[in-house]
Structure to design on (362 residues):
């Protein structure tokens, strides 16, 4: 309903009430007020329509100026009641929202304190535990090196189990420390050439590559704004997982690192042709200590992908995976600061490179 229609409706309803005052006629004032509110008009509009109607109207037979003075204010008050009720409801809602906001702020503050205490506790426990584990591992290795020939076979087997268990626990503690630090340390953003960063990650995986028979293919990768140290852990974990789960594949294992464009974002991927997994279990993939394969089949702590997810999320991106059992797996991630694929020569990997494991080790 337009402004002019509402003014006309108001004038008609007002004079109908003045002429023959009754509850039904007075109810029309409330209806016109509600219609004005729904149309996005305010109370001054209603007041203006009221006085315009009075000024333009003519006294009818049996209607005196005293009657107009008595009944018109009552009609105006009823028309404005809608705005008064709406204002009261708004003020009440605002008060409730303010209380809820105060409660949310307090709960958020308590949660931040609890998270900070938990991270500090986890870091301290992990650091102290790693020190003790390194001592156990050191003594066990010393005992094995100096007295192995003097021990019974069963004793030597026990020492081997101690060394293996200590190494596994030490790896788990290191991963937990990395997971705690990934959420605790501030991001230090800088332009990062992902091609160079991938080469650095591959260099760290030299021993694993030397023990495997995997072809690495490094494709075109973008330059992004990111925390170099944290992002390198993403590549180390994803490439290490790809090597581990594709090792032994016939005729030959293959791991590929590259990127593609989707809309305005660069998507980085690490894919392999390994054992893969059931996508029905993918909901557990990036949760700490969740394993989609048996511990006896593949070694690992179950923390690596959780670390990847935390780092990517801290960069404002997301990570996901696609796979089929026996057909390999592809891991994708985006970063909020991701630049377009470098076309200016900044990227040193503009052409795909085939690298065998001996070349990758360096």
């Amino acid at each position: 309903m337009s402004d002019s229609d509402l003014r006309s409706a108001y004038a008609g309803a007002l004079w109908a009430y003045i002429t023959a005052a009754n509850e039904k006629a007075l109810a029309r004032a409330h209806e016109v007020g509600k219609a004005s509110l729904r149309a996005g008009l305010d109370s001054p509009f209603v007041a203006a329509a009221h006085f315009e109607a009075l000024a333009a109207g003519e006294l009818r037979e049996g209607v005196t100026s005293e009657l107009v003075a008595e009944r018109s204010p009552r009609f105006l008050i009823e028309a404005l009641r809608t705005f008064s009720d709406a204002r009261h409801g708004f003020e009440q809602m605002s008060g409730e929202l303010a209380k809820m906001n105060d409660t949310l702020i307090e709960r958020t503050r308590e949660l931040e304190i609890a998270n900070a205490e938990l991270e500090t506790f986890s870091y301290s426990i992990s650091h102290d535990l790693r020190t003790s584990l390194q001592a156990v591992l050191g003594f066990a290795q010393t005992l094995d090196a100096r007295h192995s020939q003097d021990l019974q076979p069963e004793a030597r087997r026990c020492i081997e189990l101690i060394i293996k268990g200590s190494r596994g626990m030490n790896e788990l503690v290191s991963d937990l420390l990395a997971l705690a630090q990934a959420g605790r340390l501030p991001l230090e953003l800088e332009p990062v050439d992902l091609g160079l960063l991938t080469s650095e990650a591959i260099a760290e995986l030299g021993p694993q590559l030397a023990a495997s028979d995997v072809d690495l293919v490094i494709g075109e990768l973008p330059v992004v704004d990111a925390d170099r140290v944290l992002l390198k852990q993403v590549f180390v974990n994803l490439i290490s997982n790809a090597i581990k789960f594709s090792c032994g594949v016939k005729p030959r294992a293959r791991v590929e690192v590259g990127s593609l464009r989707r809309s305005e974002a660069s998507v980085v991927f690490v894919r392999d042709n390994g054992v893969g997994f059931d996508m029905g279990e993918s909901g557990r993939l990036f949760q700490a200590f969740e394993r989609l394969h048996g511990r006896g089949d593949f070694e690992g702590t179950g923390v690596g992908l959780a670390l990847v997810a935390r780092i990517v999320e801290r960069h404002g991106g997301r990570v996901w995976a696609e796979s089929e059992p026996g057909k390999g797996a592809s891991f994708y991630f985006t970063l909020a600061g991701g630049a377009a694929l470098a076309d200016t020569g900044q990227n040193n990997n503009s052409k795909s490179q085939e690298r065998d494991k001996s070349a990758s080790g360096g």
In short: Strands lie at 189-193, 214-218, 223-227, 253-262, 265-272, 319-323, 329-333, 353-355. The longest strand covers residues 253-262. The radius of gyration is 36 Å. Residues 1-134 form one domain.
